[in-house]
């Protein structure tokens, strides 16, 4: 009987129909004897199916896309009793996928601050704000940078070369060299330290590049010199 109701009143995919039939049959066995009533059929047909499609289309045409925002504030505490965490303190664009993770990390940092201050709440809130503001601002900047990276930089040869170089150095020096994304996503390294480490890596690669160019220039000069000397002989 339940199956007949579904087939008579509802158009749906075979998979959805199959699972819905199972649910309704089980409900019928648990004393829901009026499932075949007109009221139930009307509610099932209108609320779960027709209204959903119309609501979805209406929302798509009526609601305008919302602007992406970033929020930076300092400090994160107000007096001795109020503390901002999560998006209230550091809303960010979604391009690094760190919004929720950063919010959970807020809780961890707050817990560490409470332990360090022996549960003295006013001191813990001040310590939390002092330690967290720099990291919150940094991840907001990193998220925006990742937008620029995804929008444009991924098409540059220099970006692709750096990506391959980072992966190679990570394989060779796994404990010493981590790509930027890995440091942000897979470690507990504070965000501001991630940026400092990235700058250090940039300096190392810059020096290696300059050394390689210098050696190539010296080699070219030696070849020219040897070629001229041989010609004179």
From TrEMBL:
Q: Which GO terms describe its molecular function?
A: FAD binding; kynurenine 3-monooxygenase activity
Q: Which cofactor does it need?
A: FAD
| Organism the protein comes from | Ancylostoma caninum (Dog hookworm)
Q: Which residues form a coiled coil?
A: none
Entry keywords, A to Z: FAD, Flavoprotein, Monooxygenase, NADP, Oxidoreductase
Q: What is this protein called?
A: FAD-binding domain-containing protein
Q: In the UniProt record, does the keyword Acyltransferase occur?
A: no
Q: Which Gene3D superfamilies match?
A: FAD/NAD(P)-binding domain
GO BP annotation list: kynurenine metabolic process
Q: Which domain of life is it from?
A: Eukaryota
Which segments constitute the FAD-binding domain? Answer: 44-140
> How is this protein annotated for GO cellular component?
mitochondrial outer membrane
The UniProt entry, under PANTHER family, shows: KYNURENINE 3-MONOOXYGENASE (PTHR46028:SF2)
Q: InterPro entries given for it?
A: FAD-bd (IPR002938), FAD/NAD-bd_sf (IPR036188)
